[in-house]
Amino acid sequence: MFYGEVLSIIVAMTWTITALCAEVASRRMGQLQLNVLRMAASLVILALILWVATGSPLPRGMGIEALVWLLASGAIGYVFGDFCLFSSYELIGSRMGQLFMTLAPLFSALTAWVLLGETLSPRALLGIAVTLSGIGLTVLSRGGKHKVGLNLPLRGILLGIGAGMGQGIGIVLSKVGMGLCDATPLLPMAATMVRAAAGLVGFGLVYSFRGDRRRMREGLHDRTTMTAATGAIITGPVIGVSLSLLAVQLAPAGIASTLMALTPVFILLPSRWLFHQRITAREVLGALIAVAGVALFFL
Known about the structure:
mainly alpha, 13 helices, 1% strand, globular
């Protein structure tokens, strides 16, 4: 049965909800404040789930080496990757930010080549070119000073690329770490909890130096902000990331990554309804080409 493939499509849908909720919450309370809240809340939720399911709120069956790989995955995937992603939401919106996440499988392949010795086939190289062409079709055109594409700020585009890089590298590091674990109940959630712990430490340190405590207090007392933040927490680090790790276990990594890369397509209509963003034929074509490039890259 195609359990992994079905889970991958569900992940793409949950990440669509995550992106929309995170865009709303980030703009209202700030991405740094939101990420500290996300990591702290997800740790509590995941600990409760593990406690009910296994009798212990802490992950089991993980040696030092596995923990190191998973913590590194959290630092790169959450702290670096999510910092870039949520910052890009504030500048270019969740729809364009998610488009750059189609780069994640490409960075995954490069990381696997470096760490695991996996080589890139000619089809994979063609997939890279097609994916970059799809992104380029969407964002590259004449713009104002420091802007490209649909008047997108260059900083927003660089943050989007950084988000794809963090996601791609982080998923490979987590797969290495999970491969070093003993047979553990709810291993994907346990691994996600370790990654979230690294994320909380990283974001907490940054927040202690440059966090806006006033925006955090205001956000915690604002119903709209907290509703959006709750949606981002539940569908992101709790459900989405855990299911993505499970999907990679149940289906070939290439197929799972390809299906999870459908988020830029799923997000088009919700962005139009919620944020009244105009969708052009070029944007739709660019998103489809980017996803097709991911499919060619892996399948």
